[in-house]
Amino acid sequence: MNDLILCLTGVAGSVLTYFVGYQLKQGAVRASAILSLIVAVFFHLFPTLIDPFLTTQIPLIFIGASFIGMVSHKTNVSVFQLVLAGFIYSVSFTWHKGDVFSGYGRCTRHHRWHCFTY
Questions:
Q1: Smallest Cα–Cα separation from 61: which of 30, 28, 29, 95?
Q2: Which residues are within 8 A (CB) of 34 and not within 5 positions of it... i.e. 6 or more apart?
Q3: Summary mean pLDDT of the chain
Q4: Dist. CA 48–CA 29, nearest whole Å
Q5: Is 59 in contact with 13 (CB distance < 8 Å)?
Q6: How far apart are CA 61 and CA 13, in angstroms?
């Protein structure tokens, strides 16, 4: 059930950002910032409203999905594409619970040249 809520959050983040940015003429950056701030502040002020896991994950997924909604309106993006992209982002974000991305982003002795602070 939590994964479904997180996927719907990603879809809402991408579609709402696009709608506020271009239909309400707020611009992509302002739309993303306003919506992300509203979601983050809401879950910061009401942390016990829902499951603690969702309280911490919903703002993260919404903020990430809002970057999808910042796509340029000149690309002729459809609502279906925004929904699909938000869904794919949410699914890939929830995969981090397992070992799908284990080893990425960490510094190893064999790849020191990738690390700026070792």
A1: 95
A2: 20, 26
A3: 86
A4: 30
A5: no
A6: 8
Could you tell me the two tokens for 115? 């690390």
User: Nearest Cα to 6, choosing from 49, 57, 41?
Assistant: 57
- pLDDT tens readout for residues 41-81: 999 999 999 999 999 999 999 999 999 999 988 888 999 99
Q: What is the rounded CA–CA span in Å between residue 114 and residue 56?
A: 30
Cβ–Cβ < 8 Å for 113, 54: no
Q: Which residues contact 82 (CB under 8 A, 6 or more apart)?
A: 11, 14, 15, 18, 68, 69, 71
C-alpha–C-alpha distance, residues 12 and 83, integer Å: 8
Q: What is the pLDDT of residues 104-114, one digit of tens each?
A: 655 555 555 55
Say which amino acid occupies 105: G
Alpha-carbon separation of residue 55 from 9, 15, 21, 69, 109 (angstroms): 12, 21, 25, 22, 36
Q: Which residues of 5-19 are buried (b: 16+ CB within 10 A; e: fewer)?
A: bbbebbbbbbbbbbb
